[in-house]
Design a protein that fits this description.
- It is a single chain.
- The chain is an alpha/beta fold.
- The protein contains ten helices and five strands; from the N terminus they run ααββααααβββαααα.
- Strands 1-2-3-5-4 form a five-stranded mixed beta sheet.
- Strand 1 and strand 2 form a beta hairpin.
- Helix 8 crosses helix 9.
- The longest helix is centred in the C-terminal third of the chain and has 21 residues.
- It is globular.
Length: about 260
Amino acid sequence: MIGNHDWSYLSQSREGQNCSGHQSGSIYSEGKITVIRELLLGARDILELAFECDGWVFSHAGFSKTAVNYMQEILKNLGMIQDEKEYSISLLNSVFKKRLEEYDIFNFSKWIPFDEKLDWDGCFSGSGDEPSQFCLWIRPDSLLEDAYYNNQVVGHTEFCIYDKIYLQQEENKVIVVDSPDHEVYDVFDTQKEYEFFSVPEINKQRKKHFKVVNDIKSQLIMHNDTEDFIRKSLKEHFSDEVVEKLIKLAFKEYLE
């Protein structure tokens, strides 16, 4: 599944490259841009915007009602659908594939509205925390408030500390799987019943984790047996499984 950083090398809208870390504006990076673009276009047969399985929709950032409604109008104007009843994940992926097949730097005006919808598409939040953002940009808070699909699994937002985070607001459930180190991996069982939490509950848990971790880091200068001290301190608050994950994610620079 493609993400916003990948898409920034393919979008042909005026603001399409507006993405952190995008390598542009230098003669020294132009070669890299070309290589990245060619690699992505070469993989167009396997690239998708989303995947659906057993009632769960997987995408880079998620689908809101607001953004899907906008996209449906764009697809109507492109002649891809007659009405919103024809819209689906498989249809969206097929349109995305067609867009990449017709990628042409000299004749792209037809696809500009589509490209712009995949770009950052907000008014107030530079980070993408708005319902107007499509599936490459929206943040969990806005997604929960305006979810088009009730069950979604997303990355994009580096919200996790050491494991997936299960968020719920009314009937909408969102599982977030990205962390600052991008090291949250697991097998997701679509048939299993998971325990979900509200955003305030999750934020309370996160504050506890960060406080413990930061308290331990502030004391490391006084301990020669660094790893033993870290493990012992963490075990006072967390299970053995969580301790191992936190050591890997929060303390690896102290143990190398």
